[in-house]
Design a protein that fits this description.
Number of domains: 2
CATH class of the largest domain: Alpha Beta
Distance between the termini: 36 Å
Strand order of the largest sheet: 1-2-3-4-8-5-7-6
Oligomer: single chain
Radius of gyration: 25 Å
Structural class: alpha+beta
Strand content: 15-25%
Largest sheet: 8 strands, mixed
CATH architecture of the largest domain: 2-Layer Sandwich
């Protein structure tokens, strides 16, 4: 499952909504008993997904955009992640004590910052560069005198909010919070304002923060760096190769003007989903959403990457570092809702779903050749065809190739010796994970928001159990034989020198 892993429609009209459908999930799947999902599309294209549930007066609220690093090119790599940071910096009225004076400085900072970047790229030994950098530092210090840090945190905390945060992946960006339901209008006002008129204050400071984050999370962690390099050879052309955080070489030169252009081109209503789950009057909620978000101008959205990676090439990478050995094997495969994607969910669960799984028993307990082994389906994203991955942490660097061969052997053995009992057990575990996801307001909100954003239809989750229950041993064998040939594998190995 990509997300700890979609009737009876009743169509009715509301005067300010173009399209309205109410789905009662209990009629489609008993796992979703008493969960009623209402879906609306505002005139500007924003999708609204509402669920009235629970007894406590609280709401889980998520705004998601179908925008991630897969939408970037080399000059904008890391833009979506940096924008996640920038969207907490405020607007003309939030996060500043005097925007008119601050803005004068912001314009100077941008002009000077772009000049410094251009010189640093074309003539890094220019003697004027340190002088200009010192000038930029002075301007930033002056602008910071007008900045109110953590303004949104203060407002939401006072309103009773918790878990105020955001996340960016290769496929999407989400902004989320949990609030008392009487704070709905406050949330709508604040969020719609920062979407319509964000102010990218402290841009260069935040860009440096992201660069330091990059150094800490990837450059200083050999396993994380290997995983990134593994994806870069698995996807030689497709932008799934771009790390969400950006590249070490391009983050210091991310252009404010290009990042701003990326924002206004991609963060548009047609790529936006608002999900509200909790105790609410959905008619009132919809009225609030229309009032505040309905004025965001609609415009065409471009979200299709017209590239298909060559899946039948062997690619191999071996790196050396004084670190724990690490091994990755991956194969290209279709994304959801292709039936074979469901089959791979089951395969991953049979192979590595807990301590009773095939890989854990044979490689961790019996052979004692690895300290960790796992199988993943659907990396690094689900909007486009992706990877099925086997991962292992060998105990001895000299045994990496032996571990690799054992992984192949176990995978192909599953194709010939799979039992229906194994599949049934895997299905039960996958369904259990789904039940845990829908145990809370925020769990339901994340599930619906994810599938509505990625697939364009939250109802994927309604049919998930039915699909995986149809998987047979012959499907497992067919899928392994179709996609997982050894000569098509992408392999990355980390060894000690």
């Amino acid at each position: 499952m990509k997300y700890n892993k979609k009737l009876l429609p009743a169509v009715y009209l509301i005067i300010f909504v173009l399209f309205t459908v109410n789905y009662r999930l209990i009629n489609a799947n008993p796992l979703f008993e008493n969960i009623n999902v209402e879906q609306y599309t505002l005139p500007n294209g924003i999708t609204c997904v509402l669920v009235n549930r629970g007894y406590t007066p609280t709401l889980a609220l998520i705004i998601s955009f179908k925008v991630g690093s897969v939408d970037e090119h080399y000059q904008t790599a890391g833009a979506a992640h940096l924008l996640e940071h920038m969207m907490f910096k405020g607007t003309k009225t939030i996060g500043t004590t005097n925007f008119e004076e601050e803005n004068k400085l912001l314009q100077q900072i941008e002009a000077l910052g772009e000049t410094i970047d251009r010189i640093a790229l074309t003539n890094p030994d220019n003697v004027q560069l340190p002088v200009l950098q010192e000038r930029l530092k002075t301007l930033q210090q002056k602008a910071n005198e007008y900045v109110v840090n953590s303004a949104y945190d203060a407002i939401y905390t006072q309103a009773g909010g918790i878990n105020f945060n955001a996340g960016t992946s290769r496929d999407m960006t989400q902004y989320y919070i949990e609030l008392p339901n009487d704070a709905l209008e406050l949330w709508a006002k604040l969020e719609s304002e920062r979407i319509k008129e964000p102010v990218f204050r402290q841009f260069y400071t935040e860009r440096n923060t992201v660069y330091e984050e990059r150094l800490m999370r990837y450059e200083s962690d050999p396993q994380s760096k290997l995983f990134e390099d593994f994806l870069s050879i698995a996807f030689m052309a497709h932008p799934y190769r771009h790390p969400t955080i950006g590249y070490k070489s391009n983050i210091p030169f991310l252009s404010l003007s290009l990042v701003r252009k990326f924002y206004f081109e991609h963060y548009v209503p047609q790529k936006m989903t608002i999900t509200v789950v909790g105790k609410q009057d959905t008619v009132h909620t919809l009225k609030i959403l229309k009032q505040y978000f309905g004025s965001i101008p609609g415009q065409p959205a471009v979200d299709f990457v017209a590239i298909r990676e060559d899946s039948k090439n062997s690619r191999r990478l071996v790196t050396y570092a004084d670190a724990t050995p690490y091994l990755l094997i991956g194969w290209h495969k279709p994304t959801m809702p292709h039936f074979d994607d469901y089959v791979f969910d089951v395969i991953a669960e049979v192979l590595a779903g807990g301590k009773s799984s095939r890989l854990y028993k044979t490689m961790v307990l019996d052979a004692q050749i690895v300290s960790k082994v796992n199988a993943y389906n659907g990396y690094p994203g689900a909007r486009y065809d992706n990877l099925f991955i086997l991962e292992a942490v060998p105990k001895d660097s000299s045994q990496c190739e032996m571990v690799e061969e054992l992984l192949y052997r176990q995978l192909y053995a599953l194709g010939t010796s799979c039992t229906q009992e194994e599949i049934n057990a895997a299905v039960r575990r996958l369904e259990s994970a789904l039940i845990f996801d829908i145990d809370t307001n925020v769990g339901i909100a994340r599930l619906l928001s994810y599938y509505q954003t990625i697939t364009g239809d939250w109802r994927y989750v309604l049919t998930y159990s039915d699909k995986i229950r149809k998987v047979t041993c012959s499907d497992v064998q067919r899928v392994i034989n179709t996609y997982c040939k050894k000569e098509w594998a992408t392999v990355a190995i980390l060894k000690k020198p």
